Amino acid sequence: MHTTAETPVTPSAPRHVQVLIFDDVEVLDFAGPFEVFGVTGLRTGPAPFRVETIGLSRAPIRARNGLEVRPSASIDEATRCDVLVLPGGFGTRREMHNATLLHWIRRQAQGAETVLSVCTGALLLARAGLLGGLDATTHHVAFDELAQASPSTNVLRGARYVDNGHIVTSAGISAGIDASLHVVAKLLGHAVAVETAEYMEYDWNAQHNERKQTSTSSR
């Protein structure tokens, strides 16, 4: 099901959101989207999203600065999802070479309605072969890494987020909240995203979109 921000939709069942977590993941990269999808719509009716964390195993992970989090499920247990969130952090430099994880990302992305990377989560998409020929962005310190990981990707340096339809990539850390609200607006309507941002007391500017701050590309 694909809708525009102008077409509110109330699905018959909650959309399933899976948020990948791993050692050395950036905390706000996963916690920001988790909060956005987790609190959306709760004040107006049944929850439109069911959110869970997914780890390489069920063992607790140690996020950036030592935060310990126990995943809801492992990649081996994870079923199909509607929204797949891939956060960043220093751990992506290790996991971008994890063939098992990259295979899982490709499988989950194929069945998902929307795939969202935050920060250097774009490196996972690049190594999985999912950004070829697309526009994308990432944390500003990783622009060159993204270009190297996927030479055919047009790296939009300075974009807050980039929406290719199926795949959305965001800049670093806090930009994942903006991109998540953008996804909410696409799936459920702009008014729902605005209400979510207001509840979170987050100053969201929906017009701060992916094309306003571009500069150079990798091509």
Would you kindly provide a written description of the structure presented here, covering whatever features stand out?
- The protein has 219 residues and is α/β, with parallel strands linked by helices.
- It has seven helices and eleven strands.
- The strands form three sheets. It has a seven-stranded mixed β-sheet with strand order 5-2-1-6-7-11-10, sandwiched between helices.
- Helix 1 (27-39) links the parallel strand 1 (15-20) and strand 2 (49-55).
- Helix 1 packs parallel to helix 6 and helix 6 packs across helix 7.
Instruction: Give the beta-strand count.
Output: 11
CATH class: Alpha Beta
Shape: globular
Average of pLDDT = 91
Q: Which parts are unreliable, with pLDDT below 50 for 5 consecutive residues or more?
A: 1-8, 210-219
Secondary-structure arrangement, i.e. CATH architecture:
3-Layer(aba) Sandwich
The amount of helix comes to: 25-40%
Tell me the structural class. alpha/beta
In total, the number of domains comes to: 1
What is the ordering of alpha helices and beta strands? EHEEEEEHHEHEHEEEHH
How would you characterize the largest beta sheet?
A: 7 strands, mixed
The strands making up the biggest β-sheet line up spatially as 5-2-1-6-7-11-10
| Intertermini distance | 33 Å
The Cα radius of gyration reads 16 Å
- CATH level-4 homologous superfamily: Class I glutamine amidotransferase (GATase) domain
Number of helices: 7
Which fold name is given in CATH as the topology?
A: Rossmann fold
